[in-house]
Design brief:
Elements (H helix, E strand, L loop, with lengths): L3 E9 L5 E10 L2 E6 L6 H8 L2 H4 L4 E8 L2 E2 L5 H4 L3 E4 L12 H11 L4 H15 L14 H13 L5 E5 L7 H16 L3 E5 L12 E6 L2 E4 L19 E12 L2 E12 L3 E5 L6 H9 L6 E6 L4 E4 L12 H11 L6 H10 L15 H13 L5 E5 L7 H16 L3 E5 L3 H5 L3 E6 L2 E6 L1
Parallel strand pairs: 3-8, 3-9, 6-7, 7-8, 13-17, 13-18, 15-16, 16-17
Antiparallel strand pairs: 1-2, 1-4, 4-5, 9-10, 11-12, 11-14, 18-19
Helix pairs in contact: 4-5, 4-6, 5-6, 6-7, 9-10, 9-11
Length: about 450
């Protein structure tokens, strides 16, 4: 019998259309890759496995789902969590303790595991996840890949029958992504059932023992659709300087992380920042946005609004609907916030059908686009986007490029920090942030 069985399952979030439609799936040992477009139902399917759907989200449910012999609908999430280890897209949102070892131990303490047994399990989980050397590190000092592996260790400590990872490499550099996927493959070889949802599938396809595609709520076996290159509109040459830094030293508090002798951005220009996790890309964006004061040096910006999209889109989304988020931005800027204008903004980001949905009920890619719509509803003079492509399929990524093109044509200076090579390929300039410095590698 399969470890997880889903039979004729239909589900709709409160106030929304069906996210799953007569879904059929069986999951067993090995590594199962889940693919499909943003909003197609992948995250919903994963949340069925640990009971967040329907116990946390509510909504309408028809059909059956069983995991490790447990009826999902009849079993509390606290019980399902012992059988299903879940690593979300945002590992920092699973962190509850200051140090790595404490964080890995938290779930065991929460279920009353005896201290000696808990210590043994924590040690084993950290060894399997390859993070023993991080035992005493504080979580804020870790890179994205390290945080992902800490989250994996925390899930493994409960000794689940099934490990589920939702877009685990979407904000990781190549080294971090390789480390996380190697860990997943090793766990599958040890006999654990591992389920991974991903859009960037090139590394995962050779490791997967089964592949499921989720589209329009239906589940079928099959390989992902081939990637298509991004399209760019023809643009005029960049214009006047929109921002400039010189002799810049920036970091966390008074601790230097990056030093830049000079760098500028022009109106109508797309600058992409690439480089390893922890290299300083986010620090540079936050310094350009004025959210972090430079340790030394000079940051100059042209007059006008600066739009900043952080790595975690949920940090911006607090209102009950996507439409309300966009309307709030328009009102704050003194712009027309009528329903027609809000609908036009939503249409531009492919969100026309999602305006009345709660942001928490969106897929990762949809939530990213909702945050972008809220930030960019009123055109800024400078737009700073930190890892905006996570959770995005090819169609959503094209919508992002189209939106950026619209900003550039209107004279906005756009800076994007990303690990996505597809975005770097369509940039006017590319700069690498690594080793405490910055170098322009193209443009």
């Amino acid at each position: 019998m399969a470890l997880a069985q889903i039979h004729r399952l239909s589900y709709a979030y409160p106030g929304g259309s069906r996210a799953l439609r007569e879904a059929e799936a069986e999951l067993d040992a090995g590594l199962t890759l889940i693919t499909g477009p943003s909003g197609g139902g992948k995250s919903t399917l994963l949340r069925v496995l640990n009971g967040l759907v329907p116990h946390f989200h509510g909504g309408r449910w028809q059909g059956t789902a069983r995991v490790a012999g447990l009826d999902v609908l009849a079993t509390p999430t606290a019980r399902l969590a012992r059988e299903v280890g879940f690593v979300f897209q945002d590992p920092e949102r699973q962190s509850v303790a200051g140090r790595v070892e404490q964080d890995v131990a938290f779930a065991l303490e929460n279920v009353g595991t005896p201290p000696r047994e808990a210590a043994r399990r924590v040690a084993e989980a950290m060894e399997v996840a390859g993070i023993c050397h991080l035992r005493d590190r504080r979580l804020p000092t870790l890179s994205g890949g390290e945080r992902q592996r800490v989250a994996i260790a925390g899930a493994l400590a409960l000794q689940p029958a099934l490990l589920v990872l939702d877009e685990p490499t979407s904000q990781l550099d190549e080294q971090g992504a390789d480390a996380v996927l190697a860990c997943c493959a090793d766990l599958a070889r040890r006999g654990l059932a591992v389920v991974v949802s991903e859009h960037r599938v090139e590394r995962l396809l050779p490791l997967a023992t089964a592949t499921l595609r989720v589209e329009q709520g239906a589940v079928a076996r099959g390989a992902p659709a081939p990637a298509t290159p991004l399209r760019r509109r023809h643009r005029a040459p960049p214009g006047a300087t929109a921002w400039e830094v010189s002799a810049l030293v920036a970091g966390l508090g008074r601790k230097p992380l990056i030093e830049i002798s000079s760098l500028l951005g022009r109106r109508g220009e797309l600058l992409v920042l690439e480089g390893p996790n922890g290299g300083g890309k986010t620090t540079l964006l936050r310094t350009l946005a004025g959210l972090v004061a430079p340790i030394s040096g000079r940051v100059e910006r042209a007059p006008g609004r600066v739009g900043y999209l952080p790595q975690d889109p949920a940090a911006l989304l607090h209102r009950p609907t996507v439409a309300a988020e966009v309307a709030a931005t328009l009102r704050l800027a003194g712009a027309d916030a009528s329903p027609g204008v809000v609908a036009e903004v939503l249409q531009g980001f492919g969100l026309a059908e999602l305006g009345q949905r709660h942001p928490r009920d969106l897929s990762g890619g949809q939530r990213e686009r909702a945050a972008m719509a809220a930030v960019l509803a009123v055109r800024p003079e400078i737009a700073l986007l930190d890892e905006p492509t996570r959770g995005m399929d090819a169609a959503s990524l094209q919508l992002l490029v189209d939106a950026v093109d619209g900003l550039l044509e209107a004279g906005t200076s756009v800076v994007i920090a990303t690990h996505d090579r597809r975005l770097a390929a369509v940039a006017d300039r590319v700069a690498r942030v690594a080793g405490g410095g910055l170098s322009v590698v193209r443009g």
